[in-house]
Amino acid sequence: MSVLQRPTGFISRFVLLCALLLSASAHLQAQTPLGPQPDLRLLIDISGSMKESDPDNLRGPALELIVRLLPDGARAGVWIFGEDVQQIVPHQVVDAQWRERALEAVARIDNSGQRTNIPAALAAATYDLGSMDPTYRTSVVLLTDGKVDLSASPMANATAARDLLANTAPELGATGIPVHTIALSEEADWTFLRALANSTAGLAEKARTAAQLTEIFVQSLEMVAPTARVPIVGNIFLIDDTVDEFTALVFLQEAGAEVTLTSPGGSVYSPEQRAEGVDWFESSQFALVTVTSPERGAWTLAAPEGARSRVSVISDLKLEVDPLPNSLPAGRVTELGIRLRDAEGVISQPELLQLFTLAVQVTGPDGYSESIDVSGRYPVPATGEYRVSVPAFERGGRYQVLVQLRGETLERELPLYVEVIAEEAAPAISTRPAEVPEQDLQRPAVTLIALLLLALAVAFWVYRRRRKRKMAIWQRRFDASRGGADDTVVSGLSATDPDSGGNEKAP
What is the pTM of this model? Predict the structure, then answer.
């Protein structure tokens, strides 16, 4: 019998048993407090160049999607920036009132900015640096299509960018505040944005088209606030008795593509057929549907071929995973903390944990894949928390760490992402110089040529001045040897007379 065909009554008995056992053992074990809640701070570029980088203003729908996906209880704020910085969504706890204000603010995203003042934007978003609430885990997401541009002076812009990387970024990294950067144009200063992300243990993304922006935004949210999903097999996913609400997100390749949702009882839902407890939101890039108090059983999500889909859930039974560092050096071993939690706290009873199987699936560059059988490799922990060792990654690149939970009629997945930074290999012995990227050579080469031209000009000027001084000295010596231009010829001397043979003197 497949997991989609098993009776759902078991999970009801399990939840009841879980509650009874936890009640009975409450006096024996203190409950583990909830981990830090996410704190997301979004910085969105509204400079005039966005007219070309984002002609359809897809930043607006992408922000609206993030607003709808942010979990209640998180904190979030939104700033827009050009030459100046404005806060368009207050930095507050996410609730219904905050969402309403945030959705109204989407209309303020335009292309009215004159410059790209990234340092001022970062300063505004980290206004409380040094006094942040430790019960929240803060992250900054920076979207821009340009580079640091706060002045007409290239020297001032370069100085500001250098100061940000040398001082601000290390301070943010030391405080544990990653800055995830998104470049929305080939004109963006990718070298600077990547360095900013690396210095703060953040991730750098490049959206080669505005259409890719929504998916990158969602992945940024997953890094800040990992959310459990239910796996989709074909186009079917299972909703169990513990799920209070689920949200299906479908990324579309063509605008206007049809998406429908069919319940286990056969009811069909679509954007045109509204129903109580079913909320749809659509754009040209995606379709989002949230179902509250859903029917238990196998649901069907019909979407166009090639569409990418995911279903996240809000459930009484939570799969919790300690977040990995956003970036790691190659060769470093890391560790995952994995727990199951219900309304009473972390589940630690062995007889309950043995009802589930845990696994970790790691995928990465060049087809890398590794599976860790957590339930088979690790004994049931007395605290209820598995400490899973993740092997060191030797190759640089982006890795996905997918934590998988399976029960009798329950399935969960929780994705994490990590960027592995590999040091460049030492070059083999060779007489050929190492190749340097063109962008790394261009600026030093221009500077060197300018210095050489300046040195040649100075040398030529010094040479001309010395030559003039020597000519003046020679002229004075010559004039002195002549005794002056008006002196008479010395008497008693004459030119040689050719007839005298050169030996006679004048009379």
Answer: 0.70
